[in-house]
Structure formats: structure tokens, C-alpha cells
Write a structure and sequence with these properties.
94 residues, mainly alpha
Length: 94
Amino acid sequence: MDDAPKRRSLRAGAVTKATKAELADLGVSPESNASAAAAIRLSKELDSATDPKEAAAAARELRQCMHTVRALAPPKDRGDKIDELAARRPRHTA
């Protein structure tokens, strides 16, 4: 008799979709970042959770994992209000 625990299948739902979208926006790949890969796994755990305690634990760990991913993500050059105004100002040629 096999004593190994049976693995349940995990489904990718709304949390997984949102997590992948945020990782893509941050420019962090789950293939090259362990924290991002863990976030994907935790999001699937949360989507598949049937027990409220299990869901709460997965949500807590996912929140912590994404906090780490956000902190390690490369900064984005989104500009600021001054950059936006300068871009709108017509260019004067002499």
C-alpha cells in the first residue's frame, strides 16, 4: 500500500489571473524568480481552497510573497507630472 499523500489538482482562477497580470506589469518572470513562482503556486492554492482556514493561510502567504516580489522588482521609469507637462509643451525650433 502506498503511504504517500495524494496530491490534489490545483485550478487557476481569478486570483491566479490577477497575480500573473501583476507579475507581468512588474516585469518579473516566474521562470527566473523563485518568489514569483511561489506567488503563482500560492495563488492556485487560494483559488482551489475549500476550507476557509486553508484559504486564509494561502492569502496571507501570497500577500507576503507579493510584498517581497514588489520590493525586488526593477523600478519602472513612469515619469512624473513635470515630465508629462514637458512632453506636451510644443517644441520651438530656432
